[in-house]
Amino acid sequence: MYVQSILAGKGDDVATITPDATVREAVALLNERRVGALVVSTDGHRIDGILSERDVVRSLAAHATAALDQSVTDLMTRQVTTCAPKDTIEQLMWLMTDKRIRHLPVVGEDGGLAGIVSIGDVVKHRLGQLESENQALYEYITQGR
Asked: Which of 39, 40, 65, 106 sits a CA distance of 20 to 30 A from 74?
């Protein structure tokens, strides 16, 4: 199975924020969209960075409430690990585990933002696969009698 199969099920909508927005605005958007990360993008197509809940919490721990007035640029991760629609789910699981990340923006053939996949999306998809395999085995065993 491939990343594109996850995107086919969940869609390609990505919560984005501009680099000049404040962390306060980012926190509000994270809450509103009920997501754990925002892709930072000036134009909604090119990836400038990524801002996760972890980034916000680390900044709050270091700067207290003053962190909320910082710009997203100050906290975002600039070296963003991405994946492609044709990457396998197994590659994603390995990459997320190895890099200890929970969100991977998906980059299309044109180099632009094509979606985002979270560890929750991967787990949900994998559980669906296992359930289908289990059902097929059950039917094979019970119909074989």
From this structure: 106
Q: Which residues contact 131 (CB under 8 A, 6 or more apart)?
A: none
CA pair distance 129, 121, nearest whole angstrom:
12
Residue-wise pLDDT for 9-28, tens only, equals 898 899 999 999 999 999 99
Q: In terms of Cα–Cα distance, which of 58, 59, 111, 110 is closest to 80?
A: 111
Higher pLDDT, 128 or 33: 33
Residue 8 to residue 113: CA distance in whole angstroms? 15
The size of the chain, in residues, is 145
State the DSSP H helix or E strand holding residue 126, giving kind and residue range, or none if neither.
helix 119-143
Q: How far apart are CA 105 and CA 82, in angstroms?
A: 5
The residue type of 40 is: V
